[in-house]
Amino acid sequence: MLKRILLILAASIAIAASALAADVASVTAGSPESASLDNRIQDAKGDVIRLNRDLLVLEEELLFPANTQVAVFLSMDVGKLFSLDSVQVKLDDKIVSNYLYTPAEVQALHRGGVQRLYLGNLKAGKHELTAFFTGKGPHDRDYKRGATLTIDKGTEPKYVELQIKDSQGKLQPEFEVKVWQ
User: Fold this and answer.
1) Does the domain made of 69-180 have the CATH classification 3.40.470?
2) What share of the chain is helix, strand, coil (3-state, %, to 5)?
3) Positive or negative CA dihedral for 134, 136, 141, 147?
4) pLDDT at 56
5) CA nearest 172: which of 181, 164, 180?
6) CA 150 to CA 152: how far, in whole Å?
7) Averaged over 132-148, what is the pLDDT?
8) What 3-state class would DSSP assign to 130?
9) Cβ atoms of 124 and 154 closer than 8 Å
10) Given strand 114-121, what is the order of strands in its sheet?
11) Which residues of 26-61 are buried (b: 16+ CB within 10 A; e: fewer)?
12) Contact 77, 164 (CB under 8 A)
């Protein structure tokens, strides 16, 4: 079904592009028709961008239907006690995501950014999500910690946030797994 839709959209874009190419060949530069042609080209570009956006939304809906969808995100709060190097996410003892961070990506997380680590499908029922965080902890020591959560997946999409927070009372980073309601 998705391939058929893609073929139809590709054919439509090819036909529109060939029609515009024929118009461009017949119009001389500087004529009043060329201004009209420029407007038509800009309109066609806008149409292609909108079609591409709609196609991406449709593809995501087909590949990840809401009743089976699960998404895992990562966020950091302050982050002075932990310098993140990598995150590994396991779902039911199967690795679903590994990510190594650059300093720029870590800075973006410190400024309030949120990263989507995983988007996939899960059957209804109980599932175990485990995340392993690797980096440098207090006093520049190697640090690896894990956080686990049992997810009860129903018919609604499930959104899970992995949070890295500083605990000033313990002078240690804390790793939490939170399900969005």
Assistant:
1) no
2) 40, 40, 20
3) negative
4) 81
5) 164
6) 7
7) 88
8) strand
9) yes
10) 114-121, 69-77, 158-167, 172-180
11) ebeeeeeeeeebeeeeeeeeeeeeeeeeeeeeeeee
12) yes
In this prediction, residues 7-27 reach a mean pLDDT of 60
Whose tokens are 């995100």? That residue is 73
What are the φ and ψ backbone dihedral angles of 41, each rounded to 5 degrees?
-65, -45
Show Cβ contacts of residue 138 under 8 Å, excluding neighbours closer than 6 positions: 81, 171, 172, 173
State pTM to two decimals.
0.64
Query: How crowded is the C-beta side of 75, counted as CA atoms within 13 Å?
Result: 14
Weakest mean pLDDT among 12-16, 72-76, 92-96, 148-152: 12-16
Task: Determine the average pLDDT of the residues in 90-97.
Answer: 94
Is the pLDDT reported for residue 65 higher than 90? no
179, 88 Cβ separation under 8 angstroms: no
The token pair that represents 59 in the structure block = 């593809």
Contact (Cβ atoms closer than 8 angstroms) between residue 54 and residue 6: no
Structure tokens at 84: 């993140």
Q: What distance in Å separates the CA atoms of residue 97 and residue 116, rounded to the nearest whole number?
A: 10
